[in-house]
């Protein structure tokens, strides 16, 4: 397997974009912590941690990518896969940590009663972890059979999780101001739009054909995962911060 | 393509100057945050983040430059382009993040009403992102046709952005003290002078001839972009900080 120099640059630049976005969003959130009321600070710190964990993994993915696809003999030459595997596992390790934490930060910023938060988290966190664990064996193979089976198994907790977020959570929002509810509704749609990218990117090799099972699919999958990560973590973190600011102001 | 040892040193030292200026301006701004009233702190933090993101990219550009133009056999020998491409993409990834943020910090330091800020940002931020995205494909090619077309397309949002900054923003400044208005006017001129460098540096290869399409043009372009980055981010960040100080003092 090999990448043209244009394909290589695309992945390279997208990975670097992810590092910069995630690292500096983490820093921004840490520095802005005191702009929100104390009860929302945990949500902001968790958002910063999520971006920090992701930035760490992107540094690893970046270095791994450079090793796996070294420069050819000339600038225009293809980058041929070396003896070092491109390790898709980094992403799953990252998600295993960050996806549950994203749900923790989402519930934390709502500042619900202790019991209501607890009720949401015991549903959301195990479902998120299960979703990632079940997707992993499917990602490692390019064979259709197992990829479909693990993909479907992983989709079950995914759907459950969306159900809890869109139905279960709505009841918990009564009593919030219209502005806060509008922001929460935005947050959920951004979550749905970005999280929805992952199963689609996962399915590329299943579409088959030279493009989707080859270098084209690889580039599209890496780009898709990276941009979805930026939206689901960095942009999402900024929106969580804004929601916390709005609520802090209202309570002043 | 190859650089004489003098040309190599020039780019090398300018890149290092950019790292030092941007990294330590970021640090300075972070450390000075508490010298301004709380309502201006977000502008200062965003300025620091902008300089930090740029410093990160300059570290990458620097390492990439060393790999692309390795030392020759002797000290005086030319640095011949290796098999590793010099990746102009870092700059575009950087601008894609920092140019919208520069506009965010500019609007933030004005401390306008929420509605007025919103009105400016929904115009400025998408125009800035569009300008960078449209310039990128043109930068990748040295062919005249596409370079001109993408350059012109990218100039449209650039002009719109300047229009909003110089016309739209003026109305928003009524009620500010003469000193503050003078500082804001300075800020805008510095912005215009530094941002104006980018399209000029972009156009060098179009001038053609041995100098501008060859090593001379490369050195001039790298130097131009780097110095413009220092002015547009580090110096600009310091001016934003001074403006925030002036306003904090007036409100005391
Ligand atoms: C449904 C499904 C998946 C879902 C993954 C998701 C939803 C990942 C979300 C990741 C996030 C939000 C990362 C950090 O920002 C997998 C595992 C690809 C396997 C195929 C089926
Ligand atoms: C108009 C125009 C351009 C403008 C670029 C600008 C205005 C970049 C500003 C960058 C800053 C301010 C960076 C950080 O400090 C391009 C993309 C070169 C393409 C050619 C046309």
Set down the secondary structure blueprint.
Two copies of one chain form a homodimer.
Chain A: E1 2-3, H1 5-32, H2 38-68, E2 79-80, H3 89-110, H4 114-140, H5 144-171, H6 178-195, H7 197-207, H8 209-213, H9 215-251
Antiparallel strand pairs in A: 1-2
The complex binds retinal (RET) (2 copies).
Relevant terms:
homodimer; 252 residues; mainly alpha; Rhopdopsin 7-helix transmembrane proteins; two-stranded antiparallel sheet; 2 strands; binds retinal
Which oligomerization state do the chains in this entry correspond to?
Answer: homodimer
Question: What CATH architecture of chain A would you give?
Answer: Up-down Bundle
Poorly predicted parts of chain A: none
Order of strands, widest sheet of chain A: 1-2
Q: Cofactors and ligands present?
A: retinal
For CATH, the homologous superfamily of chain A is named as Rhodopsin 7-helix transmembrane proteins
What average pLDDT do the residues of chain A reach? 93
Q: What's the alpha carbon Rg of chain A, rounded to whole Å? A: 19 Å
Total number of helical segments of chain A?
Answer: 9
**Shape estimate of chain A:** globular
Overall helicity of chain A: over 70%
Q: How many domains would you count in the coordinates of chain A?
A: 1
Q: Sheet bearing the most strands of chain A, described?
A: 2 strands, antiparallel
Largest interface: A-B, 22 and 26 residues
């Amino acid at each position: 397997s090999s990448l043209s120099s244009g394909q290589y640059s695309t992945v390279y630049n997208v990975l670097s974009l992810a590092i910069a976005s995630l690292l500096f969003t983490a820093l921004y959130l840490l520095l802005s912590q005191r702009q929100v009321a104390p009860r929302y600070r945990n949500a902001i710190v968790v958002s910063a941690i999520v971006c920090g964990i992701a930035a760490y993994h992107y540094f690893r993915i970046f270095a791994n990518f450079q090793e796996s696809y070294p420069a050819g003999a000339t600038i225009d030459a293809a980058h041929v896969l070396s003896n070092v595997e491109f390790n898709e596992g980094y992403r799953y390790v990252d998600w295993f940590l960050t996806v549950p934490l994203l749900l923790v930060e989402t519930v934390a910023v709502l500042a619900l009663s202790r019991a209501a938060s607890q009720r949401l988290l015991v549903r959301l966190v195990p479902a998120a972890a299960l979703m990632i664990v079940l997707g992993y064996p499917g990602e490692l193979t390019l064979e259709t059979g197992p990829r479909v089976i693990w993909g479907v198994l992983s989709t079950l907790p995914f759907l459950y999780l969306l159900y809890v977020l869109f139905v279960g959570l709505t009841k918990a929002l009564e009593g919030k101001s219209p502005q806060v509810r509008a922001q929460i509704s935005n947050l959920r749609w951004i979550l749905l739009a970005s999280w929805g990218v992952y199963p689609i990117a996962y399915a590329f090799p299943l579409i088959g054909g030279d493009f989707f099972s080859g270098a084209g699919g690889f580039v599209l999958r890496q780009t898709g995962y990276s941009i979805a990560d930026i939206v689901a973590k960095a942009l999402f973190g900024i929106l969580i911060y804004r929601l916390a600011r709005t609520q802090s102001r209202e309570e002043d």
